[in-house]
Design goal:
Blueprint (H helix, E strand, L loop, with lengths): L3 E9 L3 H9 L4 H4 L7 E5 L9 E8 L2 E13 L3 E8 L4 E11 L2 E11 L3 H32 L5 E7 L6
Antiparallel strand pairs: 1-7, 1-8, 2-3, 3-4, 4-5, 5-6, 6-7
Length: 168
């Protein structure tokens, strides 16, 4: 199984508790996900996000509707949380969200480790389509996060990097 990694760093000029509160509310995912993904939360196993919470979504990948279920496997407010795919389009999806306080600013780091099914065909699909799709989704997300916090009188700045095993 070939594992790909996407890393993204973003500075947000808000205190860590405010930033973590935004990201810990799964309903905010709809606001920061590109419209072409057709992201919609179908259900959550609990009202508040905590370790063990399962969230079922519907997304569209190139027009094809797919249900995606994730679980929060680590919950350490306000510093980090990890969600993993339990069912969906990937063979592996593990998204680690980290938050660091720097005075009234927060450094947010995302690391996504993912793998595709279908062996060689999955690697070809990654090279031709999936890698660019994942990057575009996170670029869009960065912009929406900038907009969200800027409309509250603050600005953000970010640095994106891709690396790790198998990233081309």
């Amino acid at each position: 199984m070939k594992i790909y990694t996407l890393r993204q760093e973003q500075w947000i000029a808000r205190p860590i508790d405010k930033v973590f509160a935004f990201f810990s509310d799964a309903r905010n995912l709809e606001a920061i996900t590109p419209p072409w993904v057709g992201f919609k939360i179908l259900s959550m196993s609990s009202d508040a996000t905590v370790e063990g919470t399962e969230i079922c979504y519907q997304i569209r990948l190139h027009g094809i509707p797919i249900q995606w279920r994730t679980e929060i496997i680590k919950w350490d407010p306000p510093y980090s949380f990890v969600d993993v795919q339990r069912s969906g389009p990937y063979k592996l999806w593990e998204h680690t969200h980290r938050f660091e306080a720097h005075g009234d600013r927060t450094k947010m780091n995302d690391e996504v480790r993912y793998a595709l099914p279908f062996g060689v065909l999955g690697r070809v699909a990654h090279r031709l389509i999936v890698s660019a799709d994942v990057r575009k989704i996170f670029e869009y997300r960065r912009g929406r996060i900038d907009e969200y916090f800027a409309t509250r009188g603050v600005a953000t700045r970010g640095v994106a990097t891709c690396g790790g095993a198998g990233v081309s």
